[in-house]
Amino acid sequence: MTRLLSLPALVVAGALFLAACGGSSSSSSTTAASTPAPVKASSSPRPASVVGTSSSSLGTFLVDAKGRALYLWDADHGAMSACSGACAQAWPPLTTAVAPKASGAAKASLLGTTKRADGTREVTYAGHPLYYFAGDSAAKQTNGQGSDSFGSPWWVVSPAGQAIQKG
Predict the structure, then answer these.
(1) Which domain holds residue 10?
(2) 74 with 99, same domain?
(3) 110-161 pLDDT, tens digit each
(4) What is the rounded CA–CA span in Å between residue 113 and residue 122?
(5) For residue 49, is it left (φ>0), alpha (ψ between -120 and 50) or beta?
(6) pTM
């Protein structure tokens, strides 16, 4: 009778052993499948931020490559951005990893970059850091024009690098 009781115990132990081996095998293949593949270096350079121009009742103003309006902020002094945190959420900076390019009536000689507090490079134009307005959802919209959010006015920028203070 002791032999009969041990046989079922051996069968159960064997089944558990096989299940453990099977689980271990599939979990190791799951681990291998979830390991990210190595990243290959790209031979093509990242595109530069492009600053172009568009026109509306405000006149001709700077836009990005998708036609979204670009703004300057009166609170910025020199090329250093004073907009961060909640300000940069509402007014995201135009950033780039490489030298920006000009198109349309924008002047390449007025383009530059400045280093932000977070280490990113923000595009400048005539020494002014450039920003989008989160409330502009399509090309040519200028919903941020004249806003004084965060304590100073925001203006679209002329190709000459000056604030367009109308509208």
Answers:
(1) 1-34
(2) yes
(3) 999 999 999 999 999 999 999 999 999 999 999 999 999 999 999 999 999 9
(4) 5
(5) beta
(6) 0.72
